[in-house]
Amino acid sequence: MRVFSLESVIDEFEELTKDAGQQQRETLRKILEQNGEAEYLQKLGLGGRTDPESFKACVPLVTHSDLDPFIQRIANGDTSPILTGKPIRSISLSSGTTQGKPKLLPFTDELVQSTMQIYRTSFAFRNREYPIGNGKALQFIYSSKQVQTKGGLIATTATTNVYRTEQFKCTMKDIQSQCCSPDEVIFGSDFQQSLYCHLLCGLIYSDEVQFVFSTFAHSIVHAFRKFEDVWEELCEDIRTGVLSSRITVPSMRAAVSKLLRPSPDLADSIYNKCTRLSNWYGVIQELWPNAKYVYGIMTGSMEPYLNKLRHYAGSLPLMSADYGSSEGWIGANVNPSLPPESVTFAVLPNIGYFEFIPLEKPVGQETEISKATIHYIEGEPVGLTEVEVGKEYEIAFTNFAGLYRYRLGDVLRVAGFHNSTPELQFICRRSLVLSINIDKNTEKDLQLAVEEAAKLLAVEKLEVVDFTSHVDTSMEPGHYVIFWELSSDAATEEVLHSCCNCLDMSFVDAGYVSSRKVGAIGPLELCIVRKGTFHKIMDHYLDLGGAMSQFKTPRFVGQSNIKVLQILNRNVTECYFSTAYGI
Ligand code: AMP
C-alpha cells in the first residue's frame, strides 16, 4: 500500500508553484537562517539579513573552484560551521567526466529530502499518464566505491549517498516499484558482475517488470549492448538454475543464487524471443511484455544514445528523467509525454534559491538551438519568476547544503511556465570543449557535428557507438581530433573520408571557419578506434571511484588527461584528415 497519494503530491506541487516568487523568498530566508552562523556567510557581512536584495549585494556569484578550499577543510575534518550551520557529515564526488576530475561537494539530509521530493513529483505526473501496478522495475543502478576523506567523512557519488539512506529505500518502494535485483547487486564491488546480475534478475521477474530505468540513458544502452553478448549464458543460468561462474563476488553470488530456480520454460521463451528479433530491435518490449516505459535522463550529453535506446525499446515510450547534479536537484519532468528531445524541467521553488544569468548572443551570431555556440554576453542575474520564455540563461543556485550563488555551468532555455515556476530545457554545458585560437565550440556543437557526419554512415547501416574529441597542438597549426568507435569495421575509406570532411564543415562557428580558411587551424583529423575502447575509458573512470550510475562519456580529452589519451591513441586503427577547406 502506498503511504501517500499521488493526487496529494500533485496538489502539493501545484500549491508550491502558484506563487513561486514568495516560495523563493521564504526558501532563501530559511537557508540563511539555518546557515547564518557559517563562517562563509559571516565574512560577507549579511548581518542576519535574509532578503534577496541584501543577499545579492553581499554574496558573490561563485564557481566550484572558489568554494573548493572551504570544502577541502570540511573534508579534512574541520567541524566548525564553515559553509553550513550544522557540520557536514558526508561528501559527494561528482562524476568527474565533465570537468576531468571529480569535484568534492557537501552532502546533507536536505539533499536527500529534495531528491525524494523531485522523484515523487515526477513519478506522480508520470503515473497519472502511464499508471503502473505494484510490480517490479528493472533498474540498472550501481553504487560506487566509498572512500574516507582525511577527516574521516564518507565520500562517494551523490547517487550512492542517496541509495545508502533509509528514506531512499522507503520512497522507492512507494514510487518506483521494487528493484528486481537485491541490494548485493546494486552495492556489488564489481560493476560488470552487477550488470550481468541486473539482467538476470530482470529476466527472472520478466512478467512483473513495470518499467526499465537507469539514472542516465547511457547505462541502459550499455546494458543491452552487453545483453547482445551474454544472452545465451543468461538463458543457460535460467534453464539450469545455476549462476554463471563469472559471478565471483560471494555476497552477490549468494543473493542472486537464492532467486534462481531451474526454469526451462522461461529459458526457452527468452531464447525463442531473442532468436526471432531482427538486430535486437524491440528487445526490451519483447522480453518485458508488461513494461510501460523506459525511464532515465535522456537529455544533454545523453542525446547521442537516443537512437540506440529507441531501437532497443521498440514502441515502448521513452521518458526522460529530472534535472539535477551532485550539487543539488533543480527541476522535475512534469510533462512525461513529451519526447526526450523536447522535455522540460519545472523548478521546485522550495528546494533552493535560483538565479538565472541571461546569456545573449551578439548580433550577427546564429540564434537557433542547432547552431548553439558560446559567444555569450552576460546580463545581470534575475530571479526564478523573472526569466523570459525563449531566452537562454546560465543557472546559479543557493541551497541548504552550503552552496551560495553557485554557478553550475549549464545553459538552459525557458520553454514556458507551470503556474509561476519556469519550465527549463537543458541546452548544454557552458564550458568550451574545442578551442584553439578564436574558435569556440561546446559539447553541443560537437554533438551536432557528429550527428551530421554520422548520417553518412547510416546509409551503410553503421552507427557511431561513442565519440570524444581532443585538440592537438603538438604541431603548428593545431587541429581538432575526433575519435569515433563504430558499430562495425565495415566502413569504407571513402565513406570515412567523407565523414571527416563533413565533421570539419559542421563546426560552423565563425572563429573556426575563418581560422580554417586561412590555415590558422589545421585539417580536422578523424580517428577510428577499436571496438571496446570507450568501454576501457569507462572502466578507467570507474577505477578512479566514479559510479556507473553517473557516468557520462567525456566529450573532450585534454592534454593533461594522459591515461585517457593513451587509451584512445593505443586503440586507433585508422585516421583521416579533412580536405574540406583545401588547406
Ligand atoms: P554530475 O554531478 O557529475 O552527476 O553531473 C551533473 C551534470 O549532469 C549537470 O550539471 C548537467 O550538466 C548534467 N545533467 C544532469 N541532469 C541532466 C538532465 N536531465 N539533462 C541534461 N543534463 C543533465
UniProtKB/TrEMBL annotation:
Keyword check for Ligase: yes
Domain GH3 C-terminal: 444-559
Domain of life from the UniProt record: Eukaryota
Entry's Gene Ontology molecular function annotations: acid-amino acid ligase activity
UniProtKB keywords: Ligase
PANTHER family: GH3 DOMAIN-CONTAINING PROTEIN (PTHR31901), JASMONOYL--L-AMINO ACID SYNTHETASE JAR1 (PTHR31901:SF5)
Identification of the protein by name: Jasmonic acid-amido synthetase JAR1
